[in-house]
Amino acid sequence: MNLKLRFALLFTFFVAVILFISCITIYVSFSSTREEDYYARVSKEGEEVHNIFLNAKENKQAATHKFIKETHDKALFSERIFMLDSANNTVFQYPDSIKSPPVVVSNEKLRSGGEYRFTDDKGYQGIAMFMPQTNSYIFIWGYDRSGLLKLKNLKLILIFVFFGALLLSAFVSFLFVREAVRPLKDLALQMQKTTVQNLTERVDETQAKDEISEIAKNFNAMLERLSKAFEFQKNFVYHASHELRTPLATMLSLTESALNKTMPEIEYKKILLSLKEEQQELIELTNSLLLISQFEHMGFVEEWPR
Predict the structure, then answer these.
(1) pLDDT tens track for 233-253
(2) Which of 8, 48, 135, 208 could form a disulfide with 174 if both were Cys (CB 3.0 to 4.6 A apart)?
(3) Where would I find the beta strands (DSSP E) of the chain?
């Protein structure tokens, strides 16, 4: 996996995490708000039914089943109401098919808490309330069709937004990373052109004070050091060859002279002394070259103290 693809995937991953956390937060917040709003509506409905019952009682009018049905304006979808008096006798139920409350809760708990929220197995949400004015208990519940439908639509929207934004961020991140690594790619191409034969060439240095410019400067500095080292090596080989050629040429000349002429013994001794001097000079020069070679080798040894 190349660096460009790795950066694009990494950037897309971070965006996906942020989007996921954001979508979950929005969904949970809306769900909590919907639930609180629905429970408030349910509580208001319960209080309204109780007020109808209370007004009928104050006006000495029978709070009959028919009277409450005609007076109460149903506001909950699939609304269910069950009302008990202090002796747990059924005062009112709607619809008529309801025989008992959907939840069992002690009267002491309702008296101390005032309200008790519940959800049945069908997803109906409701509240059990104690009304101290009449010492009665009201169970009212229903199905939040509109709120749950909005929650479902929000879920679909968030899923669409998540994957849509993820694809868009992946595309944008790929384009961004491609442009970001373009200077590195250009720098790599320029480095590939650098060989021993063209150490004088340099890569382009930008005016921007970034990592790419720093790499280019360091690479050019390295080329400068290598160029000087190769130049020194070339000059050294040239001068060493010149120094070796002179004594060798002298020795050759003396040897040919001794071979081509008949000379007295003393002359041969002089020639041999001259050859000895030239040989000693060659030995000293060779030892110097050997020392230089050993010094360069020790520079590359890891254990060499710095």
Answers:
(1) 777 777 777 777 777 777 777
(2) 8
(3) 80-84, 90-94, 115-119, 125-131, 136-142
